[in-house]
């Protein structure tokens, strides 16, 4: 594929991509309004291109991406399921897009209905008592939750500054905890890949504010001891937080609210099919049990006889975690998804996700053996440790070689507790043919590793760029284009 | 049953289960019996696409949008013109269905677009470095404060009372765990930050001074004077601004800001009830390694060909965990892409013109309103596209009358500032016509 110049390198003075109306009010000199010291002195530095040039540029760029709509994208922990098109169409209706947050609430009852009902559906799916849709992403939901936990204990005049986090957790868990001012205590996993209860017992005391658990965990395993873990934590007065990143394994099968979880976040951009956008916008709603409701961020969406309204009168609230009310467009898409699937459809989602992950696991686990064996849930973690030790081929090389088979690589080197990890999440929306093609590709790669391991270092072969020199890019960061003098 | 997105036939399932060596999916579910859900979820059954379209169309009609009514609302979300090309590019699935570009070989589209976005933002702001985006303007500002705490020791921030009140609240939420104090800088009779107060309260313990320009009242702050005061004490100068205003107003880099942030919605993103947002985050280059969020850098591949890649990931949560510069992972990449296409579409002249139109329109309207009996302009400072009007009638009554005439009137400032009861904040963008403004003025004139 040809190299695509930067848009700045295509700019030519005098070209225009947009036609704007003129001024229809009396013309006045701008200097009359604004002192010259407040006016811009330097050029804006924006490119000048025509609309056809602009379109061709960005369409060509788009063609350099792999995405869910072009390729199998089994990126573990990211739930790259199909993004239904009707959701996109309906979320872009002008009566949704062109609403101002400070309009009177009587003029956006339709969208408030969607927000309210989405919250209710999430409450039913999770077994939680109330949901806030405000957080903009999963990590933002975590931070919101940690701040609520803080406020909860401050209110009870209990000094608790420790958060327990298993070593298999996503990096956002410890990062969110420390952002909220907590001290992170790492809990080991046992040989089965689940929380080591002995290590947990040793660390539970009355300074523990909560345990953050991902269920199923990042190995794709359900924490079978979770009822006990909840009991232990609760017996010491602590709370149980659930990182909902892996909720795609649980919908209709079990509810966090029924196994002791007090507070959790959802990822609408994972479980509920809204597209990832190349890194956002996402949406990370937070669900809580009764006792934590007073601490939810303002405003909450409530309903009375005259309709839906925004409630700011919440004295114990942690306050605001963002401007306005949430990534509304994402919520509208998730609402559409929930409506189309309904109760029966939702149940099939998780079952089929579990089926697909186990099919892949079973077909590949002897070739890429992981230290944690056995039935998994919605994702499986394999390992290339034997390949590295025997043939010098790393998970990274396997990932890059997969690209040659037109497959997006799985998550690699995560979870950290598995060496040379390949974390594979196929989701329920991929057909058996697609799964078979992926399995065949990895079997073929295993064969190549046996026969000609060094060839993998050259992969990928047919991409717009080959492997990037990341060391140099990090040592001498160039984060913007500058005109060569 | 409605399963439009699950492809497996009964035969497929049977064969997959055989390969796995189990008889049913049930055998694969390792959830302990005691916590299995044994009844159906209490949710409605699924509906068809046709039914869904009907329902959503019905719900959409229960909203009145700024396309139906004429809007003079601002305050952080704005009704600006968006060229069609922006939505067309952003609705390409190659842009909206991938994940964060972790694999550069198959993500050059997203990576180059972000690199171009970073360049556009740096140029527009005259700042050295920009990240790939944050959630919104408010969290961007809160993260700027947290970053300032990593750069400079101290015990407090001085924050303009003319900062967006919602941003101020978010700042309080984010800073609470740190115990760092926040002191508000009152506004003067001109409607801008009181510099005497600022001078008075500055000391070596001030980590940073946070202002908004144009401020929440639309007024242009004395950014150069503030800079001198802030830097005299070695504090960090943190500015939140309206990126669109930079088409004509002096950008943060020109007045020596250390960290500059913004809500990016006005650049090509629909308002979406305040959800069409993304945070812009820029700083001086010496703070690059303290920045939160994703950053794309230029690089070379094995053949020496130019490419782009996520850099400085060792700052981030997936590597640094509890010692990361921020917990942010997913940001607002698609919104930033829209801003990128918008800025390229506007070009050098287009954005200048838009900013100029906003300014001329707003000045026209303000003059008309303040000439009406019962309406006063309380603040004398120069302004951009928003201005405050003091009314003799209650804002509720005024806005109700306007609503009846299919106009969204100004924002009632009493909601945020108890001392500003009977004050409205009007916003005028390039989309407002003389006819619309004259209609507003005529109705205001009739209200007694």
From TrEMBL, chain A:
Superkingdom of origin organism: Bacteria
Catalytic class of the enzyme: oxidoreductase
Residues where N6-(pyridoxal phosphate)lysine is found: 270
Family matches, as SUPFAM superfamilies: PLP-dependent transferases
GO CC, alphabetical: cytosol; glycine cleavage complex
GO terms, molecular function: glycine binding; glycine dehydrogenase (decarboxylating) activity; pyridoxal phosphate binding
Glycine cleavage system P-protein N-terminal domain ranges (all copies): 22-297
Keyword ATP-binding in annotation: no
The protein's Enzyme Commission number: 1.4.4.2
GO BP terms, alphabetized: glycine decarboxylation via glycine cleavage system
Residues in Glycine dehydrogenase C-terminal domain copies: 350-452
Pfam families according to UniProt: GcvP2_C (PF21478), GDC-P (PF02347)
Alphabetically ordered keywords of this record: Oxidoreductase, Pyridoxal phosphate
Named cofactor requirement(s): pyridoxal 5'-phosphate
Record's catalysed reaction(s): N(6)-[(R)-lipoyl]-L-lysyl-[glycine-cleavage complex H protein] + glycine + H(+) = N(6)-[(R)-S(8)-aminomethyldihydrolipoyl]-L-lysyl-[glycine-cleavage complex H protein] + CO2
InterPro entries registered for this protein in UniProt: GcvPB, GDC-P_C, GDC-P_N, GDC_P, PyrdxlP-dep_Trfase, PyrdxlP-dep_Trfase_major, PyrdxlP-dep_Trfase_small
Chain's role: The glycine cleavage system catalyzes the degradation of glycine. The P protein binds the alpha-amino group of glycine through its pyridoxal phosphate cofactor; CO(2) is released and the remaining methylamine moiety is then transferred to the lipoamide cofactor of the H protein.
Summary of subunit composition and partner proteins: The glycine cleavage system is composed of four proteins: P, T, L and H. In this organism, the P 'protein' is a heterodimer of two subunits.
NCBIfam families per UniProt: PRK04366.1
Family per similarity comment: Belongs to the GcvP family. C-terminal subunit subfamily.
Protein known as: Probable glycine dehydrogenase (decarboxylating) subunit 2
The gene coding this protein: gcvPB
